[in-house]
Specification:
0% of the residues lie in helices and 40% in strands. It has no helices and 7 strands. Strands 1-6-3-4 form a 4-stranded antiparallel sheet, with no helix packed on it. A 3-stranded antiparallel sheet has the order 5-2-7, with no helix packed on it. The termini are far apart. The chain has a single domain, classed as Sandwich (Immunoglobulin-like). With 120 residues, the chain is mostly beta strands. InterPro entries: Adhesion_dom_fimbrial, Adhesion_dom_fimbrial_sf, Adhesion_dom_sf, Bact_Fimbrial_Adh_Pro. It comes from Arsenophonus nasoniae (son-killer infecting Nasonia vitripennis). Keywords: Fimbrium, Signal. Pfam families: Fimbrial.
Length: 120
């Protein structure tokens, strides 16, 4: 992560797309949404906290976004609803570094997120 990508708090950098591919969805399910959970950042509790300590970056957290890269999904909140077709669904998201402070210091960035699938 290049810290010069951040000029002020709330700036984002390094968008990384990721997918959750679901197959064999429950027979009667027509829709699914996701809830991402993990340790919330202390400054912005809608973001995923990174590990702290020697060698780790500071002033930054991880934001999870819908595939359009515009709508942020707060930790422990529902995503958009996705349609299930033939027991299959492809859920597309983007993760970004988000500055939580005006000064971001370089270092390693590690975070863990878990997700729950909720079928309708």
């Amino acid at each position: 992560m290049a810290t010069n990508s951040f000029k002020k708090a709330h700036d984002t950098a390094s968008p990384t797309a990721f997918n959750i591919e679901i197959n064999n969805c429950p027979h009667n399910s027509q829709e699914v949404f996701v809830i991402f959970d993990g340790v919330k950042d202390e400054i912005n509790n809608e973001l995923l906290a990174i590990k702290e300590g020697n060698g780790y970056a500071t002033g930054v957290a991880i934001g999870i976004y819908n595939n359009d890269s515009e709508r942020h999904i707060p930790i422990n909140n529902k995503t958009n609803v996705y349609s299930i077709t033939d027991k299959l669904a492809s859920l597309k998201f983007i993760a970004k570094y988000v500055a939580t402070e005006n000064i971001v210091l370089p270092g390693r960035v590690e975070a863990n997120a878990h997700f729950t699938l909720v079928y309708n």
